[in-house]
Protein 1
Amino acid sequence: MATVFYQKDANPSALKGKTIAVFGYGSQGHAQAQNLRDSGYDVIIGLDPHRKSAKQARADGMTVFAPAEAAKRADWIQILTPDETQGEFYESSIKPHLKKGKVLGFSHGFSIHFKTIVPPKDVDVVMIAPKSPGHLVRRVYAQGGGVPSLLAIYQDASKCAQELALSYAHGIGSTRAGVLQTTFKEETESDLFGEQAVLCGGLTSLMQKGFETLVNAGYAPEVAYFECVHEVKLIVDLIYEGGLSRMRDSISNTAEYGDLTRGEMVVGDDARKAMKKVLKQIQSGAFAKEWIKENKKGGKKFAKLREAAAKHPIEKVGEQLRGMMSWLPAEKKNASEVSQSPRKVMNA
């Protein structure tokens, strides 16, 4: 069982008088920075002053410096920029100012675990990884709560790395909910596996193939979308609230019997074998090398895959059906606009 830390385990004063620089003002960046500030910590933002996100940061009352200047001023350097560009960003803006006694912080272990960033031995290297999107990190904190986080220590040069990390976790509100001890290796590999095999790759492939199966069998695309895509949220919400048992207790006996007798037919031994293959590619570093290489080559393959996915009939049908749903925000209904908009990075 993982060790879990709470409010009583944190010493907020451990970061008193220290400057925390948050690099990136996306999903996680804006939330962590504002929560830290509202907890009484000294926070600055490291961004190109001309970026749109820098303008938003200033509008939110944050002080913005160019990345190199922010790194120079900071005692704690929290890198929340995209995984695929972190290595280059670190070399150009962070490394020259990463002096003995500073803390290098992350919210995902990719760059450290796969060694696209190799920090000096005289700095603490830690991870505080909130287990929710940034908007929820901010909203729950503002309501007086917090979201759980993972904590990992890669280097403890100061012999105080864990105390400092828990102080940071306290500042973003996570000790209110619970902070679980892990390692950079465990967080990175399990996170990538979850994204690829279940949460994103596995789930979207399952929905798409279910949609295609019904449509190819002559069922209306609109009906197929409702059954294989739209209702996924209803089921996931039940699982989120109370686990698989809560979901099964809430559906019909017919649905539950079908679940327990047919689910293994669809996601069975072949799927497990594929999952093991995916996990091995993550563990060996093959996926990380592929992803980094793809970005160095300009991301052409990635762009083609995005374009093909956006043109799938499931997107057009979904866009039409979401138009019927008055409760959805207008800006979230149009699939074509979403597919062409600037990309949001989960860990930035």
Note: The chain is about 55% helix and 10% strand.
Protein 2
Amino acid sequence: MKKILITGANGQLGRALQKEYAGEEDTKLLLTDVGVEGIPALDITNLPEVLAFFEKEKPDVVINAAAFTNVNAAESAWDAAYRVNAIGPRNLAIASEKLGAKLVHVSTDYVFDGTAREPYTEFAAPAPLGAYGKTKYAGEEFVKQFSGHFFIVRTAWLYGDGKNFVRTMLGLARDHDTVSVVHDQVGSPTSTLELARCIHSLEPTENYGVFHGTCEGFCSWAEFTEEFYRLAGVETAVKRITTAEYPTPAERPAYSVLENYMLKLTGGYQFADWKDAIAVYMKEELAGK
């Protein structure tokens, strides 16, 4: 029986991973989160607690889907973001290595500054802009330092079962004739179901290293909104604005397109096109209403 520990199990990716692994009789999922009723708590920022948990449960694979993801809040909460995004992965790497367990660590496009003119491959030099990106990159470096059996998967513009951009914008459409959405930030909207399938395909292998994992193709936030509004039959108009017209505490990369280069080079999982993935998601969302 293979034991797979999923941290952040109640988040969007955590829920998608549970769905992905459902029905596998030879796999036992160890679900953990913090402050979620019905799911055992594991504070990944506390090394003694992590070591004790690993000693008791002895996972074979660890999938770290826990993160401090509030990009704006991270600017004024550096310590909290660093503990979760950097110290947490460090602790998981230390504990995983002690047991000989594989570690899948989920990272982000925010490790790049967004000044590129072509998609970032895994060989591009990270240059994060703000607290979120810098703490996530520190987490990557700790994983590389302390784990000998790791998969780092960078993803972007994630949406799934939970609070996300799609549901927020659909909510706004109910009360607004027009919504303003930035058009000068470009990336690849990525379904958690697609990312979960990618992780599931990687973790049984020894194809270790850093991977980019996003849906194929790219668009702006405004174009993304227009597409899922179209799929939902929403008539609310999308006003395309610039980042300067919608200032936020954290600077965001203007160009976040990742190339899944290593997956393609090594015969790994091939992601769906972003339009196909959002169509699947919207079909499920609309069916649930």
Note: The first strand starts at residue 2 and ends at 7.
Protein 3
Amino acid sequence: MKQTDFAKKRIFEIIEVGDKKDIASRCYDMMLNIAIIVSMIPLTFNHYTPYTKAIDVITVIIFIIDYVARIYTSEYKMGVFSKKAYLVNILRIESIVDLLSIVPIVALIFPAVSYARLFKLFRVVRIFKLARYSKTMVSIANVLRRVRRPLGTVLLLAVIYIFISAATLYQIEPYNFDTFLDALYWSTISATSIGYGDFTPTTNAGKIVASISAVVSVAVIALPSGIITAAYMKEISKKKGAHEL
């Protein structure tokens, strides 16, 4: 094995979830977990302070190094020793999360740019990086991969239903909403059974639409929960079976 290949393999072993016997890998995991948690601190402040800025700079540097290292070792991660491994790895959900966690650097470099605060909000994405080190989160990720097609179909159905409900009431009571976006907001809030009450149907036709919408939403919104729960139970049974063997 070439020296460069050996170094790349060792980097891969360190940055992946550590083996109990690999002290370097375990230390790296601990460092990254601490960096992820600490990087959330600036979200509790409205403005930058010297301390929060220092936290942002240090954690962003750590996340950039981590992202580059994970892409650099794509061949070992994907088990395919070709350029295709790099592209496939970059497009993985985990890699996209890693990339988005670096986005707040834009707010650091260009603090006066428009939507700088929006770039800062990408710090929230970093919390999903912890999923890499949690067995429970790994199981949930496996479940979501397994049910992504039926779940996608149900979510599309929910979006269509919300749009139709909003459009219907917007035509019946146009004076009740300033824009169609307000109608979409009402439909979404009603579908999730939250109902803040800031938009309320006033005509009989509008109340009928709202009633039908509420009944249909019970089935449409409940479907994803049923699909995910059933898949999660299968995942648990599968793991129990593997442990028994």
Note: The radius of gyration is 24 Å.
